[in-house]
Amino acid sequence: xxxxxxxxxxxxxxxxxxxxxxxxxxxxxxxxxxxxxxxxxxxxxxxxxxxxxxxxxxxxxxxxxxxxxxxxxxxxxxxxxxxxxxxxxxxxxxxxxxxxxxxxxxxxxxxxxxxxxxxxxxxxxxxxxxxxxxxxxxxxxxxxxxxxxxxxxxxxxxxxxxxxxxxxxxxxxxxxxxxxxxxxxxxxxxxxxxxxxxxxxxxxxxxxxxxxxxxxxxxxxxxxxxxxxxxxxxxxxxxxxxxxxxxxxxxxxxxxxxxxxxxxxxxxxxxxxxxxxxxxxxx
Length: 283
Known about the structure:
Distance between the termini: 78 Å
Oligomer: single chain
Order of helices and strands: HHHHHHHHHHHH
Largest sheet: none
Radius of gyration: 22 Å
Strand content: under 5%
């Protein structure tokens, strides 16, 4: 959807445009299939309650970002709201959905040897994964690129789909739940998250501290709020993206440390058991 409707009031948009029932139905179908194949007691791949919560939350956030009025407001009126949508779509949804899938699913698909899985394995290599997403994300926010994407519905759909897919590959190296597929140590994962935050900062800073309006897309749109004219809206967008990024990264770091501590405790218990066994054999 382009910006031919940018000067309309929100109330002038159709129910379909505001709530996107097609996206809702698609996401609902994904949820139904998830619970049918992975959430029932008879399914081959068992999921925990926490995994179900993560996956369901990922689907809800995805609909809020792509199918709710948030999308219309961000696309036609407020850059800051668009940045909320971006943060939710590419920083929050992928981690939740990765953590929500059963481990057996990953073992099955990553065990296949075909062109698709070989490509996915290549794209999830840490250095490639982080540089690919950060590069595409930064290019997307270049004014000339951003305005061109936002003015054409098909280009926007393709661009956002590519960003979403590369966001999944970007998060995989630090959230991979399968030990044999892990290529990073816990300390390296922490470094990876910090590196990602550092690499995303220039794009946010450029937006936050710009002296001029960067995006023609929002130059002449109606002001929904008098306290948020275009320049303040643009600055707020950069701040919002950075804050939400830190929140999500904090969650991911917490998950990494939790797994790290849990693994070390299990190792300590094994070592203690071996020591006791050895002492019993020597006595």
